[in-house]
Every structure is written in C-alpha cells, then in structure tokens.
C-alpha cells in the first residue's frame, strides 16, 4: 500500500485539530457528565432514568473518540527500548481473550521465541497490535456458515526484519475497502472512528517499518507488520 501525499497532509492536520478540539470539548463534557449524574435521582422520580443513562453512555462514547484523536496526535518520535516480542503479543492477545470467547471465537498465539527482542516504543507498538486484533475480533462475529472464528498471531525474525502477522478468517474486504483502509476516518462500521489503522500506519512508518495487507471476501484477512532489525 503506497502512502500518498494526501494521506500525509490529512494526518498532520488531524493531529493539530484533534489536540486543540480535545481540550476544548473534554472539559464541558466532564461537567455535563457530572451534572447528569447528579440529576439521575430526579430523572428516576420522573420515570426517565433511561434518558440519563443514554446521555451518559453517549458522553462516554464522545470521550472515547476524543481519546482516539489524541492518540493519533501524539508526538511521532518513538521512545525506543528493547522489549520482548513474546511478552508484547501475550499482553495484547490476553486483552481480547474474553471478548473472543464470548463470541465463540479463538485467538491463537503461536509460540514466539522468548529471545526475540525488538527495539520499539512498546506503548505505540502495543497500540498498533491492539488496533489490528480489535478489528479482527470485530469481524469474527460476522462469520457465516457455522465456521469458527479465529485470529492467528505469529512473529518471527527474518533477514529483512521482524515480521508479525495477524490472520483472521473473518468476512474479508473488497478491493474498494482495501484501497481506503489506511485513510483517516475511513470506516465501514456504524460506530467506527476510522482512526485505528491510520494511526497504526503512522506509528509503523515512524519505526521504519511497513504494514502489508492481504484480504479476500468471505475468506479472511492477514495483516503483516514488518519491523526493522
Ligand atoms: P474502524 O475500526 O473504526 O472502522 P479502522 O481504521 O480500525 O477503523 O479500520 C478501518 C476499516 O478497515 C474498518 O471499518 C473495516 O472496514 C476494515 N478492516 C480493518 N480490519 C479488518 C479485518 N480484519 N477484516 C475486515 N475488515 C477490516
Ligand atoms: Mg478499528
């Protein structure tokens, strides 16, 4: 997937705007949230407690989006340290284990050499892996035909870098979706932000790596992250 100038400009702009907006919107949201909470007993008396709950959950959703914006505007220089790839992947897969189980799906982490170390900003790379696994788990629920959903994660060292792959047997993507995958705000989900992959793309670029994607409708998708040695 080629990175276009358009993509770069949009991301840089997104960073500036999001940081500014986040601060201006977060504070009023916090006070709205507080007052609604104080009003809950009154709403209950009116038999309208449900309205309060909806307002609270919508505020939480707005906050989540702001959080993702902020994440995407973080300083780009990675704070690199030596970290264990096996440990990083264990942490990430563990986070989604219960969600996958609830959907009757499986997250499979193939054995990763305990000596495989990477020189990365662990927080940023963890964010990338989380974004990719999250997307995979989200599409697994949509699998038809009684096939068990599965995400297979593996990592290995090759001559040209450390490769981490995430292979799902979810619904896959058509060519049009594939071509826009890394565009900021591109989403096919009702409640998506379309930021996960654009942010991941930038983080990996900043690490001198690359993201490769293969997908086939009805078969599944594989994301391959390449990190320099
Ligand atoms: P969001 O998850 O908020 O939609 P992302 O940037 O994480 O934003 O993903 C963008 C889009 O890429 C998704 O809406 C989806 O259409 C597509 N996508 C990403 N990962 C997968 C996957 N594993 N299988 C199918 N489609 C995917
Ligand atoms: Mg996502």
TrEMBL record:
Keyword terms: ATP-binding, Kinase, Nucleotide-binding, Phosphoprotein, Transferase, Two-component regulatory system
The residue ranges of the Histidine kinase domain are 20-229
Please provide, alphabetically and separated by semicolons, the GO molecular function terms listed in this UniProt record.
Answer: ATP binding
Q: Which reaction does it catalyse?
A: ATP + protein L-histidine = ADP + protein N-phospho-L-histidine
The yes or no answer to whether the keyword Transmembrane is present is: no
> What does the record give as EC number?
2.7.13.3
Q: What is this protein called?
A: histidine kinase
């Amino acid at each position: 997937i080629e990175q276009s100038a358009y993509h770069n400009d949009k991301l840089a702009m997104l960073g500036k705007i999001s940081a500014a907006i986040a601060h201006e919107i977060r504070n009023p949201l916090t006070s709205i949230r507080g007052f609604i909470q104080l009003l809950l007993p009154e709403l209950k008396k009116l038999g309208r407690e449900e309205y309060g709950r909806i307002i609270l959950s919508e505020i939480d959703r707005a906050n989540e989006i702001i959080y993702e914006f902020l994440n995407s505007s973080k300083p780009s220089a990675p704070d690199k340290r030596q970290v264990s790839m096996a440990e990083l992947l264990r942490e990430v897969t563990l986070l989604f284990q219960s969600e996958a189980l609830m959907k009757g799906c499986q997250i499979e982490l193939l054995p990763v050499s305990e000596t495989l170390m990477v020189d990365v900003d662990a927080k940023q790379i963890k964010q990338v892996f989380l974004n990719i696994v999250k997307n995979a788990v989200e599409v697994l629920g949509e699998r038809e035909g009684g096939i068990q959903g599965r995400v297979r994660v593996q990592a290995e060292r090759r001559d040209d870098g450390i490769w981490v792959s995430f292979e799902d047997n979810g619904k896959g993507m058509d060519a049009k979706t594939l071509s826009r995958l890394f565009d900021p705000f591109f989403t096919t989900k009702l409640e998506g932000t379309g930021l996960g992959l654009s942010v991941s793309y930038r983080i990996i670029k900043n690490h001198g790596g690359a993201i490769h994607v293969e997908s086939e409708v009805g078969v599944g998708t594989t994301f391959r992250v390449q990190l320099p040695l």
